[in-house]
Design a protein that fits this description.
This is XRE family transcriptional regulator. Keywords: DNA-binding. By secondary structure, the chain is of the alpha+beta class. The protein contains four helices and eleven strands. A hairpin with a 3-residue loop joins strand 3 and strand 4. Helix 2 crosses helix 4. The longest helix is centred in the first third of the chain and has 14 residues. The radius of gyration is 17 Å and the shape is globular.
Amino acid sequence: MEPVQTEDEGLSIEGLEAPDGETLGRMIREARKDKGMTLEEVARAAAIGRSTLSKIENNQTRASFDIIRRLMQALELETPQLFVQSGKSDISGRRDFTRKDQGEHQVTRTYDHELLCTELTSKRMLPYISTIKVRDVSEFDTWVRHRGEEFMFVLSGELTLYTEHYRPLQMKAGDSVYYDSGMGHGCVSTSDEDARVLWVSLDG
């Protein structure tokens, strides 16, 4: 196997890289196959080279955040879990800050995610605020699932949390829930306005 290298194409202005190349590659490859898409089709949709995508899937290069964003959009991935970075760090006393409404948006067909504190590298937790656009569980092609654990706090509106092992859970502003995110899940707004939630994902 070729040594892992930093890919020059599509480097983001933040200079941040995807953390776990093996996991990232596996998730992208599985998502591509689930949608029945070829390397060429996904690469074209994400505006990257076929060889670049192949290297990412086989952990032979490090993908920038910009490339990950484009792949998420091309594959219609419903979770920003790909942005969770490695928890391994020898640095202590770190801090990151995001002003109100100044987070980094990642829009999917069902959610509008606002990623928070994105400049801090080598972290295990991923905080983000999401607007739940979907109105019926049938709008999900499949369960949302990723490794780790997740905390959700409802900021406004009402929603139903669907999980594969439990009955649907109705929630409203002020309610919170903690669950294994490897268990299939998905949220649906049930109020007149789109529900907004604070999610904190912990890489497992």
